[in-house]
Amino acid sequence: MTTPTLDNFWMPFTPNRAFKAKPKLLTSAKDMHYTDVDGRQILDATAGLWCVNAGHGRAKITEAIQKQAAIMDFAPTFNMAHPLAFEFAHKLAGIMPGDLKKIFYTNSGSESADTALKIALAYQRTRGHASKTRLIGRERAYHGTGFGGISVGGIVRNRMYFGSLLTGVDHLPHTHDPELNAFSKGIPEHGADLADTLERLVALHDASTIAAVIVEPVAGSTGVLVPPKGYLQRLRSLCDKHDILLIFDEVITGFGRLGAAFGADYFGVTPDILCMAKGITNACVPMGAVAVSNRIYDTFMQTADAPIELFHGYTYSGHPLACAAGIATLEVYAEEDLFNRANTMAPYWQEAVHALRDAPHVIDIRNLGLIGGIELESRPGAPTARALEVFDRCFDKGLLIRVTGDIIALSPPLILEKAHIDQMVETIRAALKETA
Ligand code: PMP
């Protein structure tokens, strides 16, 4: 295949100048592998972008999309709808934790995060607590790129260029303690008390001004930060104590990544609102969703002061192709018991990833379910350069990894076998050895 002109596509979250000097173009994908423009097989250690949980090119899903495209390409869900939107919401509700049984559709993780924040604010106002407008996020959090998401998110470069963000936002400290919890296997021991910072924010602002706290159960995009033992439980009980909503952003941790349908199930902590995307359609059609508790939904239905209970939505909320893909995806997950797959593979995964402890430049390793984070010592004066070099070297050796800062983040499709894990680890080891 010939390389197309590279002049016009402004690539997202990419060093465009460097990419265009040495492009990496993927042209097809099947199961655990991509094929690149030169016909090379590239093992996928990132499930695309934390999203192709059932592996690539699943016939059941692509056939469902093709069939639906031929039947009905699009139908609005404002003031009318189509049966698949209800059917998929019902099926999703069947796997949601607790009483999170009402589903609002979006098109991405960013839209899910912003939708969740808006529902939280509108809920407080609708039930007569209009002063509860403050939102609390966390340092080193990623909630997508909308203005809500970057405001509660905690990544400096995602925030610093974009002027005034949402007002009335505070951040809890992140949960990573590189000294006490270095090279933790699974859930780290120390740091549950970091949740208590919420008490300080309540003392400062008063609970009557705080609408919601939003966290990722495991922060992925900032380098795999696994919450300390008991942390999420503590956050839940503090939110209950102060009548503050708890939102989980499960865009990464949803759909089997940790060995349960959702992180909420894995940790045994149920939020009031839960954000999803990515694995919801196995990434075959862009889609996201927000699940809310029956209590929140019923409050809108019983007390909203206008016929439209929530002034929010997207043209493509519940797109027919996405719903068809989502229904087929849930079937694949169930038929192959994929939500359980991370449990089966996790012990081998953990030992394999931690075997890189003695590889050059490695200063920390973290893991949970089928996620792994390998933190590298930054080059003096050149943060991210080392990880980018490892990324390039791995790609040349036929392995797709993800790097964020100087951290390698791994999140393979859940269908992987032990031999794939061995290949991932050995390729990363070889790349690290070659890296100056
Ligand atoms: N929330 C979390 C936790 C994410 O990891 C991501 C994407 N990695 C998003 C939101 C944003 O999703 P999207 O890129 O689909 O907008």
UniProtKB/TrEMBL annotation:
<keyword id="KW-0032">Aminotransferase</keyword>
<dbReference type="GO" id="GO:0009102">
    <property type="term" value="P:biotin biosynthetic process"/>
</dbReference>
<dbReference type="GO" id="GO:0016223">
    <property type="term" value="F:beta-alanine:pyruvate transaminase activity"/>
</dbReference>
<dbReference type="GO" id="GO:0030170">
    <property type="term" value="F:pyridoxal phosphate binding"/>
</dbReference>
<dbReference type="InterPro" id="IPR015422">
    <property type="entry name" value="PyrdxlP-dep_Trfase_small"/>
</dbReference>
<dbReference type="GO" id="GO:0004015">
    <property type="term" value="F:adenosylmethionine-8-amino-7-oxononanoate transaminase activity"/>
</dbReference>
<keyword id="KW-0663">Pyridoxal phosphate</keyword>
<dbReference type="InterPro" id="IPR005814">
    <property type="entry name" value="Aminotrans_3"/>
</dbReference>
<keyword id="KW-0670">Pyruvate</keyword>
<comment type="similarity">
    <text>Belongs to the class-III pyridoxal-phosphate-dependent aminotransferase family.</text>
</comment>
<protein>
    <submittedName>
        <fullName>Omega amino acid--pyruvate aminotransferase</fullName>
        <ecNumber>2.6.1.18</ecNumber>
    </submittedName>
</protein>
<keyword id="KW-0808">Transferase</keyword>
<dbReference type="InterPro" id="IPR049704">
    <property type="entry name" value="Aminotrans_3_PPA_site"/>
</dbReference>
<dbReference type="InterPro" id="IPR015421">
    <property type="entry name" value="PyrdxlP-dep_Trfase_major"/>
</dbReference>
<dbReference type="InterPro" id="IPR015424">
    <property type="entry name" value="PyrdxlP-dep_Trfase"/>
</dbReference>
<dbReference type="Pfam" id="PF00202">
    <property type="entry name" value="Aminotran_3"/>
</dbReference>
